[in-house]
Design a protein that fits this description.
Blueprint lengths: L2 E5 L5 H11 L3 E6 L2 H11 L4 E5 L5 H15 L2 E6 L16 H29 L2 E8 L10 H21 L4 E8 L12 H14 L4 E3 L5
Helix pairs in contact: 1-6, 3-4, 4-5
Bound molecules: NADP nicotinamide-adenine-dinucleotide phosphate.
InterPro entries: NAD(P)-bd_dom_sf (IPR036291), SDR_fam (IPR002347)
Pfam families: adh_short
Protein name: SDR family NAD(P)-dependent oxidoreductase
Length: about 220
């Protein structure tokens, strides 16, 4: 059995993607800052092959340690999803955004993904296949001066992901990005967590294209 690792897993998108991939036969590793939170979530997702690991994505040692432990406990990581919910400090208007706000946003959206990808890549190469999925809000596709930190840092994350898409395709490692404009909303035909989880599942199985949108940008 291989493993889906969700970096930044909570009750919304993370839980829905965990359920979807678990139903398809994957082991699931749930990573967030709180061990209690991911333990609770792992119980809700269910099954012996779902476990929680604590790490802050802004702490590279903790993040690589969590991914390493997940691969040892649950099996090699075939799918990595990077989807922590950005902190509200990263969502300030452009002219209120300080260097300190940007430092956090860059650690969160650029250093975190590079750390996670570099940790799982050797295992994917050994497996001979892999999928790396990024989830971002609308500011990941069109900068929004009301949320400057994510707009700036998501641009870097998107550039990294897009280059990875091209670079890793010959190795049967598919890289995709889901852009979710607006809020994730239960019951919404475009942004219900289960609908988004199905889209991410199809990104993993179809293995074509890089960026998909949950709905049109306004
Ligand atoms: N929610 C929305 O309306 C919305 C809209 C558009 C796009 N998105 C995208 O969708 C994804 C999140 O979906 P969601 O809102 O449904 O989230 P979720 O899966 O319910 O939870 C995400 C989890 O990220 C964890 N997290 C936050 N900061 C972290 C950090 N520094 N290190 C490690 N984990 C961290 C939090 O858990 P802890 O507090 O335990 O760390 C949180 O529970 C993100 O990629 C986001 O950009 C969300």
């Amino acid at each position: 059995m291989t493993t889906l690792a969700i970096v930044g897993a909570g009750r919304g998108l993370g839980a829905a993607v965990a359920r979807r991939f678990a139903a398809e036969g994957f082991s699931v590793a749930l990573i967030s800052r709180s061990q209690e939170h991911v333990d609770e979530l792992a119980k809700e997702v269910g099954g012996a092959d779902c476990a929680g690991y604590a790490a802050d994505v802004r702490d590279p040692t903790a993040l690589t340690g969590a991914l390493d432990a997940a691969a040892r406990d649950l099996g090699p990581i075939e799918v990595l999803q990077y989807s922590p919910l950005p902190h509200r400090d990263f969502l300030r208007p452009l002219l209120d955004t300080t260097v300190a706000d940007l430092t956090g946003a860059v650690e969160f959206s650029i250093y975190g993904p590079v750390t996670a990808v570099r940790q799982v890549l050797p295992g994917m190469r050994t497996l001979g296949r892999g999928t790396i999925l990024f989830a971002n809000g609308g500011s990941g596709a069109r900068p929004n001066p009301r949320v400057a930190g994510t707009s700036i840092a998501f641009a870097g994350e998107g550039a990294y992901a897009s280059m990875l898409h091209t670079e890793l395709a010959p190795e049967n490692i598919h890289v995709g990005q889901l852009i979710i404009p607006g809020a994730i909303t239960a019951g919404d035909p475009h942004t219900d967590p289960d609908t988004l989880a199905a889209t991410l599942w199809h990104l993993h199985t179809d293995r074509t294209g890089f960026r998909v949108f949950a709905r049109d940008l306004d």
